[in-house]
Write a structure and sequence with these properties.
- This protein has 592 residues and is α/β, with parallel strands linked by helices.
- Among the domains are: 3-86, 2-Layer Sandwich (Gyrase A, domain 2); 164-276, no CATH class; 406-583, Orthogonal Bundle (Isoleucyl-tRNA Synthetase, Domain 1), CATH 1.10.730.10.
- 54% of the residues lie in helices and 11% in strands.
- It has 21 helices and 14 strands.
- A five-stranded parallel beta sheet has the order 7-6-5-11-12, sandwiched between helices.
- It starts with a helix and ends in an 8-residue tail after the last helix.
- The chain binds one RNA strand of 77 nucleotides through α14, α15, β14, α17 and α20.
Length: 592
RNA sequence: GGUCGCGUAGCUCAGUUGGAUAGAGCAACUCACUUCUAAUGAGUAGGUCAAAGGUUCGAAUCCUUUCGCGAUCACCA
């Protein structure tokens, strides 16, 4: 039983004794810094049950609690707030109970619990990954780790959009202008090479439009009748018909892209348990449409197209099958969702990490799956996130106004190197170790910068003003971790001694309180699909520690028990930093 | 136009199920490194929580309206 539950129980008991009234709940908050106390009972809500002066009721409750709860040492009442001072021994006991628990705050999945599948990344294979993908990847990976830590089994997945007109554009441009270039022959990363031809296609396409317009064609008509676009569309049809030459080219160029992506993912530190390819799934869903018609979920129009009427739910009618019988995006997504549950039988819910421009699509998708009667449909969540904008506006691949993921990681690492070398604390460190460290810090800065913001909000990324390394940043937190490691390296004796009784320094108590919040923070972050909650928690913990570090001597403490206890607290803070940063996909350095 | 999201200090962001005087960082200004790593700490200044109503003992938080920004409303993906 934790202290809050105990006090709640005693407040109810006290209320019954004092006023012969039963109250259902008790409201708490952490006592504000400017008042004496640790936990505060808010008296106002109790006035519903017992009319009277809140200060007087608080006083009576305070008296009752201090006489009947041994852990409560003192109390004071300010307006309608009853502040309770908890005995140091309680905090010491609590600390001892978590000190050696290396998975403190993390839950282990229960035997028969359903798994959650988290989809993220899901790129098109016609161009390299950019900053928008980076946000997607970091969010998806982190949310997956958080859900895992909250006690659920997780599968990370992505659906690779490897077919369609976009890749045909790159293929065609390469065929026309590529002169047989390969990643080997050019030394270019495969995804970059393919991306170049996507841009090349667009340039040629625009040129042809201009030509047609100059010959008197209307702009609208020109856009749909350029020879190069027609040829790309023909290529897509040939691919769908399984024409050997096209399929071979498609395989070759996609492989270049996969090789390139693999490097980016590895550098970014994200991974997947299961991959899906759109070329395998794009025909799925059609059979479900027929079933849906029988169930009355869908209906057919005279032209043969199939629709779902969602007007009762405040939405529109949505097409799920074209009049020529071919699938639309929605059809595929319905089919793919069903396929996933077939593939992995213990999946009981899914999280889709996709930008907020598709909010409507997912609203419709989830509703349709519910209407089709799947029991897992109630556990679907669209992890919707805001776009990453540049000062110049939106990023556009075709116009080359993108922040490339690989370049960005290199720049961040470079910045970390410059700052580190200026500070010059790394003498005697091996060159290899140093480079590893620069990457840890650079990526830590980038990841924290992106993840600390609520997913729903848009991010404005200014490449010129770059990412901070001071204040509420990844490196600030990493620095604190490294500082603690430095202290621990200097300890020459066994500090595992369990301290039973001690007068706590205020800063020590604050740290223990903050540590105690970790488990509920993990749960809260999972329930809200929000790495930002973890980031903010960690920042608060670290700020608290730095204040402690600056104000209280650890290794210089004369009293042996106090010294041991301070080392233990420091160690635990470092452990929790490491744990919570692992949930964000950020590494921590031993020194920096 | 309909729907959805967002709007908090000059800038970037926190703010739990409504609770005490709305908090951090950056930038500005003070101070603290012969002392456990100053990528730090202690402090000063900076606010009509977009606006107006409403609910409540109590509203940045809930409801309504208005304004601003963004997204979306394809037999595209």
């Amino acid at each position: 039983m934790n202290i809050q539950n105990l006090i709640a129980f005693k407040v109810k008991e006290g209320f019954l004794r004092l006023y012969q009234i039963e109250i259902p709940t008790v409201e708490f908050q952490a006592t504000r810094k400017e008042f004496e106390g640790d936990i505060t009972v808010v008296v106002f809500p109790l006035l519903k049950y017992k009319k009277g002066n809140p200060a007087e009721i608080g006083e009576n409750l305070g008296k009752y609690l201090s006489e009947n709860v041994p852990e409560i040492k003192k109390y004071n009442v300010v307006q309608g707030f009853l502040n309770l001072v908890i005995d140091d021994v309680f905090y010491i006991n609590f600390f001892n109970s978590i000190f050696t628990n290396s998975t403190f705050g993390f839950e282990i999945p229960k035997e028969n619990d359903k798994a959650i599948m988290v989809e993220y990344s899901s790129p098109n294979t016609n161009k390299p990954l950019h900053l928008g993908h980076v946000r997607n990847n970091l969010l998806g990976f982190s949310v997956a780790e958080i859900i895992k830590a909250s006690g659920k089994k997780v599968y990370k997945t992505q659906i690779i959009n490897d077919r369609g007109i976009h890749i045909c554009k790159s293929m065609l441009a390469w065929k026309l202008f590529g002169n047989g270039e390969t990643p080997q022959s050019t030394g270019l990363k495969g995804d970059k090479l393919v991306g170049n031809y996507y841009v090349k296609f667009d340039q040629e396409y625009k040129k042809q439009i201009a030509e047609l317009i100059s010959k008197g064609t209307s702009e609208e008509e020109a856009k749909t009748t350029t020879p190069i676009l027609s040829e790309a569309q023909q290529m897509l049809r040939n691919w769908e018909n399984g024409e050997e030459e096209v399929v071979a080219l498609w395989k070759k160029m996609n492989q270049w892209v996969y090789d390139g992506f693999e490097v980016t993912y590895k550098n970014l530190g994200v991974d997947f348990d299961k991959l899906y390819y759109e070329s395998d799934t794009y025909l799925l869903g059609k059979d479900v449409i027929a079933e849906g018609i029988e169930k009355g979920v869908f209906y057919k129009k005279e032209d043969g197209s199939v629709w779902c009427d969602l007007t009762d739910e405040g939405l529109d009618e949505k097409i799920v099958l074209r009049s020529d019988g071919t699938a639309v995006y929605m059809t595929q997504d319905i089919g793919t969702a069903i396929q996933r549950v077939k593939d992995l039988k213990d999946v009981g819910g899914m999280v889709y990490t996709v930008g907020n421009e598709q909010d409507y699509h997912f609203q419709v998708l989830f509703l349709i799956l519910k209407k089709l009667g799947f029991d897992w449909a109630k556990n679907l969540f669209h992890l919707s996130y805001g776009m990453v904008d540049l000062p110049s506006g939106k990023m556009k691949s075709r116009e080359g106004t993108v922040v490339d993921a690989d370049d960005l990681m290199i720049e961040m690492t470079e910045t970390a190197k410059i700052i580190s070398e200026e500070l010059g604390k790394l003498e005697g460190y091996l060159e290899v170790k140093k480079n590893e460290l620069f990457k840890t810090i650079g990526l830590g800065a980038l990841k924290y910068f992106i993840l600390k913001v609520d997913p729903k909000k848009r991010i404005l990324f200014d490449p010129k003003s770059s990412v901070d390394f001071q204040g509420n940043t990844g490196p600030f937190i990493q620095y604190t971790y490294a500082r603690i490691q430095s202290i621990i390296r200097k300890v020459t004796f066994d500090y595992s001694l369990e301290i039973k009784e001690l007068e706590l320094h205020e800063k020590e108590k604050d740290l223990i309180k903050q540590l105690a919040l970790f488990p509920e923070t993990v749960q809260q972050a999972a329930a809200n699909y929000s790495p930002a909650i973890i980031a903010n928690y960690t920042y608060d913990l670290v700020k608290e520690f730095n204040s402690f570090y600056q104000n209280v001597s650890i290794l210089g403490e004369e009293n042996h028990e106090k010294k041991v206890f301070r080392i233990q607290i420091s160690k635990k803070v470092a452990d929790v930093i490491k744990q919570s940063f692992s949930l964000l996909g950020i590494n921590v350095p031993e020194r920096m």
